[in-house]
Specification:
single chain; 6-stranded antiparallel beta sheet; Elongation Factor Tu (Ef-tu), domain 3; 3 domains; Rossmann fold; Four Helix Bundle (Hemerythrin (Met), subunit A)
Amino acid sequence: MNRVMSGFFWISLYLLVVLVPVFLMLIPPAPSGRSFWLELSVALGFVGLTQIAVQFVLIARFKRITAPYGIDIILQYHRQIAMVAVSLVLAHPLIIVIDNPSRLKLLNPLSGNWASRAAMMSVLTLVILVVSSQFRERLKINYERWRLLHLLLGVAAIVFAQLHVSMAGLYTNTPWKHAIWVVTSAAMVMLVIYLRVLRPAWQRNYRWRVAEVRPERGSTHSLVLEPVGDHGMRFDPGQFAWIKLEGSPFTLEEHPFSFSSSAERSDRLEFGIKSLGDFTRRIGDVPPGTRAYLDGPHGAFSIDRYPAVGYVFIAGGVGITPILSFLRTMADRKDHRPITLFYADNDWDSVAFREALAELEEKLDLHCVYVLKEPAEDWKGERGFLTGEVLDRHLPKEKLARFFFICGPPPMMTAAHEALQERGVPEARVHLEKFNLA
């Protein structure tokens, strides 16, 4: 099954799963004599609840599901649709009260029944989940603690919602309907167990060790891993993996980093890591021999998915990492298709991997264009920001026949993307890699 058909299949299945609860409501026996608004509120609640349950599938990192889109797109969708799902769930009690204000007493834990109390607990956990996710940095919640909190709140929301549906009993009043909801909730909890228990247990059989931590320019390090045993990891250039260091595979501290090494080497993996946070600032102090565990490869940002007569790569800062994997892979394959690389950074000393890029220019049909925000006075290259005018001076004449790959800080990617659109580059030929997977 090709990527287009596979993507269509998963979207169709997703819509079917989300809408099934509404269809189940219409199958007799169903409550009668209820107002339109009351039925609408219940329908919204069921759809929202199912959407929340499906989120457990989206975060389980199933490669067969994420492959057509890329896991970065999946996780972005997860963040956005989760807000929609929570809004639908919140609309459920709100419409019920607006339809009949006397039902306001159900929102009082002291005057309500056990079904309404379970519903309020589910709503409360969802509100805490949203607030802690949206304002994690402002609340100064540690990333690992937030992940654990996020997981526990999600499970609690599903469990309390299931209790509410079961105790209310109006739409699960037959054994088969009730069984479907119980099985669905149990399946979501099993997915959590798979992701946090079974998969890490499997990773223990495929350990890695830190072979080298090599300092690079621009507060960047190359983390080099080698397998403990005769296994390796095949990946496409441009993909990434979640890395766990120094602990057991069951730790919640794992971080995604792009491969910077050639995809032709499955037994020696390199990752370019810039010092940007607590974990990355410690990379330079990791001693050789440290145990490591990998979950990957993941991602759809790869030249192997989009063969072309040539490429244009646009990088900013540490966004050079996956593009370096492109170039090293092409060099190992003796691939001489033409490449233009735009690389933006603050100054010449901050340009990570510039020596490696110089070597690759000797091996490839590669033209590097460096754009420095604060260059030295004697700098003869491009200055300032990577603008459309800079692109005009260096883009190849046959640019519409090439594929474009952009990776870097969000403002730079947005500006470069818009500049390419203004120059008539088809949207289907532009691919972006976003850093934020948290």
